[in-house]
Design a protein that fits this description.
The complex is a heterodimer of chains A (about 525) and B (about 260).
Chain A (H helix, E strand, L loop, with lengths): L3 H12 L2 H38 L4 E6 L2 H4 L11 H30 L6 H21 L14 H7 L14 H8 L4 E16 L2 E10 L3 H4 L3 E6 L4 H5 L4 E5 H8 L8 E4 L2 E11 L15 E5 H8 L6 E6 L5 H15 L10 E5 L1 H7 L4 H9 L4 H49 L1 H9 L4 H38 L7 H27 L3 H6 L2
Parallel strand pairs in A: 3-8, 5-7
Antiparallel strand pairs in A: 1-9, 1-10, 2-3, 2-9, 4-7, 5-8, 6-7
Chain B lengths: L7 E10 L6 E11 L4 E5 L6 H8 L7 E6 L2 E2 L5 H11 E5 L10 H10 L8 H14 L15 H13 L5 E5 L7 H18 L2 E6 L2 H4 L4 E6 L2 E7 L6 H11 L5
Parallel strand pairs in B: 3-8, 3-9, 6-7, 7-8
Antiparallel strand pairs in B: 1-2, 1-4, 4-5, 9-10
Classes of the chains: A alpha+beta (about 525), B alpha/beta (about 260).
């Protein structure tokens, strides 16, 4: 129906009446801009709520090494271990002890040196690694490899400094597992985790706190985090296993008081670490307090923990789902993946535990006790309810709001459309003679109709495109000056322009039909 | 003078308008053959049906009854699209009021028929070029970008003629083309018509109520009350070119 000459004719005709044309376009512009801005606000609110859910850890999945549900039964008896496994375990223990001697001495050596590395330490450590490298090929296993075993051999206690070594201290998860999980569809971020309790020392001040061997992606997962000073450690520091540290705000306060810790040195395990940042939270639900897991804590690269403590395993892997609705599916995928990676037969239990972190994030994430009690205490099976239903309920609510806003804005689009219809009807009357002339030189009725529809569409699409720009600017302004969160997706833009074109066709059709139906002779005579 | 050989063969055509009250009989049985290359002047008082006759010839209107063969083909009952195509390719119109698009350059006005030449599309460049040569043919090549309100009446009518001739039509229909022109420019327009007939063999049907304008035609048909009352070759044909030469000689200061 449209071809280039139709459009050219239409544009020419519109240019002849600039004032009318531009006023009509303004009407359309306002309509489209309003719709786009409203959609931006609506989806922005949706995203903000989704963000809050994520900040609260609703999309969090944690894979912990070991499986306490299985192990719990034989915690006291220990009879569940098969003889062959027990035999194998014995040989493990021997080697473990063997290597731990070397390692233990290296730690002792390290302790005896006042500060930092000594050449002796590195040499010894190198020797320890060499011992393991030597032993490993014959055993085909790392001493930490027993999937069901908590670290109750002496070295584990020594190393982890945790007499309660339980869930998470089994050595089954590796960085390779984490990398494999990164490949699962719908997974947003994956972070390796190693957890210890340590004494942090700076000058004469000491503080006993949590140490997290973390991945650079952790700040992406802890969405409510903000850096009061400095930054998180970067990928380069992590890959080089550098001795850099990020302090939680509570730990920073305890160790440094009101001084700025960034750039200062602190010691753990008698090793010197440079502080690169101090982290705190923006979430109103969370108040950093002594004893919490996130801010009364220090963070160093997990690779540094691996290097200094000669570990190869992880305590846990933290995963975020890109969408809260996919948490269950991803949990299943992670389980399947790890079972196949760990070569666990169908009749054997998992050697890891996958949990959603909803309850834990709410309870342990430093949430105000009253809020936590209200949220956690009143809902049975919180994980399921929160993730599946709370997320969906919020989604529905925001979608309704978006629809409402867009509906209101659509009224202005309608007004814009009626404006186009008005101007086109006027134009048909004004240009009756022109229509007659065109008909006389051979324009078919449908050529005339196409021209008028094309004019209406040209008006509405031009208005639509300008409206998109205006809408973008408006949304930007709302974000900047009113702090409203707005989101403009490409589909919203395409939709707006599409609706504008549809309005043009719809409201241009009737006037165009009128124009096409005019009698050529009458219109030629029209004054 | 057989029906088959005629370019335009109108046979017993009537046209009745159903107006409120009594129906108006604009044509009451008209039969005329017009051959290729004729310059026919149709005269008659207003309301005699000559304009209705022209509209039917120009495929702007359909007869109520009777047959109209254009080039041997019955066009009295063609669809609107088919009639539009015939208007586009076979017929050129020139009107009393020039009927140019306002606020549109002379060149774009002349291009207009090519925009609707659906059978053989023309590129914008070729369109411009053909429009330009048509304007050159009527001596307005240096007015191409002028809008109608920047042109004199004679110039506007020449733009209209250039537009009418753009698709090389067989027939040029002129409805009171000199009605809004002074005598001098009227003669100029008649000169163009006569040259078109002589040089390009275009068939011209000129509707006028001025007997002295009708004198330029090679044949004069007189209408009255929807009927043909006279149809005869014009023995005393005026030659516009000679008159122009005479005027130019008589008053050289006029250009």
């Amino acid at each position: 129906m449209f071809n280039r000459s139709t459009l050219a004719i239409a544009v020419r005709a519109l240019r002849r009446n600039r004032l009318q044309t531009s006023l009509t376009i303004v009407g359309m512009t306002i309509g489209v801009a309003a719709v786009l801005a409203m959609i931006a606000i609506g989806t922005g609110a949706e995203a903000a709520i989704e963000d809050q859910i994520r900040a609260a850890g609703m999309n969090l999945i944690v894979v912990t090494a070991g499986n306490y549900k299985v192990k719990a039964t034989d915690d006291f008896g220990g009879g569940a271990v098969e003889p062959s496994a027990a035999l194998r375990h014995d040989s493990h223990s021997e080697v473990a002890q063997d290597s731990s001697v070397a390692q233990g001495s290296s730690v002792v050596q390290g302790l005896s040196v006042a500060q930092g590395f000594s050449p002796a330490f590195t040499t010894l450590k190198g020797r320890a690694t060499a011992v393991i490298d030597f032993v490993l090929p014959t055993l085909h296993a790392h001493p930490e490899d027993d999937p069901m075993e908590k670290h109750d051999h002496p070295t584990a206690r020594q190393r982890l400094g945790d007499s309660e070594a339980g869930l998470g201290s089994a050595a089954t998860l590796t960085s390779a597992d984490a990398d494999a999980i990164r490949g699962i569809r719908g997974v947003q971020y994956v972070a390796e985790g190693l957890h210890q309790n340590v004494h942090v020392k700076a000058g004469d001040r000491r503080w006993f706190t949590r140490l997290h061997g973390a991945d650079v992606r952790l700040p992406l997962i802890r969405r409510a985090w903000t850096f009061r000073g400095g930054r998180f450690f970067n990928a380069g520091e992590q890959s080089r296993a550098e001795q850099v540290m990020v302090l939680g705000s509570v730990a920073a306060q305890r160790v440094f008081g009101d001084e700025n810790p960034v750039g200062r040195d602190v010691a753990i395990w008698n090793q010197s670490f440079r502080v690169v940042g101090v982290v705190t939270t923006t979430s109103w639900m969370v108040a950093p307090a002594p004893g919490d897991d996130q801010f009364d804590a220090v963070y160093i690269p997990f690779s540094t923990v691996h290097r200094l403590l000669n570990l190869a395993k992880l305590n846990d892997i933290t995963i975020t789902a890109a969408s809260t609705g996919e948490v269950s599916r991803i949990m299943g995928d992670v389980t399947k993946l790890l079972r196949s990676r760990h070569q666990i037969g169908d009749d054997k239990p998992d050697d890891f535990t996958v949990t959603t972190q909803a309850r834990q994030a709410l309870a342990k994430g430093g949430m105000r006790p009253d809020v936590a009690r209200a949220v956690v205490g009143n809902v049975a099976g919180l994980e399921k309810v929160t993730l599946e239903q709370l997320g969906k309920t919020l989604d529905r609510a925001t979608r309704t709001m978006t629809a409402l806003l867009a509906g209101i804005a659509a009224v202005s689009l309608l007004v814009g459309g009626i404006g186009i219809m008005n101007i086109m009807l006027l134009s048909v009357t004004e240009r009756t003679r022109e229509i007659g002339i065109r008909r006389a030189v051979g324009a078919r009725a449908r050529d005339v109709r196409a021209q008028f529809v094309a004019e209406a569409v040209a008006l509405s699409v031009t208005g639509g495109v300008i409206g998109v720009v205006a809408g973008l600017v408006a949304a930007q302004g709302l974000s900047r000056y009113l702090q409203w969160s707005t989101t403009i997706s490409a589909s919203a833009v395409v939709l707006s322009v599409g609706v504008a074109a549809a309005v043009g066709i719809f409201f241009g059709w009737y006037p165009a039909k009128q124009a096409a139906g005019l009698d050529p002779i009458q219109s030629l005579r029209y004054e | 003078m057989t029906t088959e050989a005629a370019l335009i063969a109108v046979h017993d055509v009537t046209k009745t308008y159903a107006m409120e009250g009594a129906p108006v009989h604009a044509l009451r049985g008209v039969s005329i053959d017009i051959h290729a290359g004729e310059f026919v002047a149709v005269v008659g008082p207003s309301g005699s049906g000559k304009s209705t006759f022209m509209h039917i010839l120009g495929c702007l209107d359909r007869p109520t009854s009777g047959r109209y063969l254009l080039d041997g083909k019955d066009v009295s009952h063609l669809s609107d699209d088919e009639l539009s195509a015939i208007r586009n390719r076979r017929i050129g119109f020139v009107f009393q009021g020039f009927n140019l698009l306002a606020r549109t350059s002379a060149l774009e006005n002349v291009e207009l028929p090519l925009l609707y030449a659906h059978e053989h599309r023309v590129s914008p460049a070729a369109r411009r070029q053909r429009a330009m040569s048509a304007l050159t043919a009527v001596g307005l090549e240096n007015r191409a970008e002028h809008h109608p309100n920047q042109l004199s009446g004679g110039q506007q009518q020449r733009v209209a003629i250039a537009r009418a001739l753009l698709n090389d039509p067989a027939i040029l229909l002129a409805d009171e083309p000199t009605g809004n022109l002074d005598s001098r420019t009227s003669i100029e327009v008649m000169d163009i018509f006569q040259r078109l007939k002589e040089e390009r063999g275009i068939t011209i049907v000129l509707i006028t109520h001025e007997p002295q304008v009708a004198e330029y035609g090679s044949r004069i048909i007189r209408f009255k009350d929807g009927r043909v009352v006279a149809d005869h070759p014009n023995a005393s044909r005026r030659a516009a070119a000679e008159e122009l030469a005479a005027v130019a000689a008589g008053s050289p200061e006029e250009t």
